[in-house]
Automatic annotation (TrEMBL):
NAD listed as a keyword: no
HAMAP family documented for this protein: IspE
Positions of ATP binding: 96-106
Protein name: 4-diphosphocytidyl-2-C-methyl-D-erythritol kinase
Pathway membership, UniProt: Isoprenoid biosynthesis; isopentenyl diphosphate biosynthesis via DXP pathway; isopentenyl diphosphate from 1-deoxy-D-xylulose 5-phosphate: step 3/6
Domain GHMP kinase N-terminal per the UniProt entry, residue ranges: 68-143
Amino acid sequence: MLRDAFAPAKVNLTLAVRRRRSDGYHDLESLVVFARTGDDLSFAPGGTDFALIVKGPAAAAAGPDADNLVLKAAHLLAHRVPDLPRGLFTLTKRLPVAAGLGGGSSDAAAALRLLAEAGRLSLDDPRVMEAARLTGSDVPVCLDPRTRMMRGTGADLGQAIDLPSLPALMINPRVAVPTPDVFRKLALEPGRECPADPAARLERHALESSSLARRRADLVTLLVGTRNDLEPPAIALAPVIGEALGLLRQAPGCRLARMSGSGATVFGLFDTCRASAAAAQQIRAVHPDWWIKSTMLG
């Protein structure tokens, strides 16, 4: 029986780097939402091993199928669940690759959801969670793609929170900014403690009161006081990110423009879907080679 799953783009509305750990990794605090645009994945059980077909507009940039996180996640789970059904995955790739949108991680999480369904496993099964964590740092938050805070190296997840949906425009200027390079440029000293992300207060407010879930303007006002600590080093490495942010900030109706993750995708939050679509048309006329997508977040 063919099963299908949607792998939405992950957007970091905020990203605070709290400290550099002794093992070289960084502890983060990030408010994560998911877009209504993304990749599609299907799974057809059958056979004795896993296989993958990648198609779609971004398929060529996805790299060798054997290195795809979909297969990595599948093999990690199968190692822990020997009787797990094998079969063929078909990935329709639309999101840009290495773009700060967690596309590969979301694809892997979708694969785990499909396999959990096929193998009659719950998503909170420790074996599923371990496979997600070992596949990549963004995979656990994508496993159940709902708005929440993500902390540490990615495995410390807060409760899902109810926030209003946000009209948004996402732009990727088709430039690669490797995450390790961005952290090296940040050059955070080991042991230094950085300020907490004000989004943590937003999380508490959302969990304690339902009012924030009804007021989009209040949410955007709170987000203006937050940050993405990786934005300045990413812009230093790829100035075109700053150009894309500048175009968003000049667009009528844009209330906040920021980079997602370690880049190079940026997003703008708008008053209305119409304003977001108009900005997309305007910017696309100047940069027809950029990936530009009007969508909703949350």
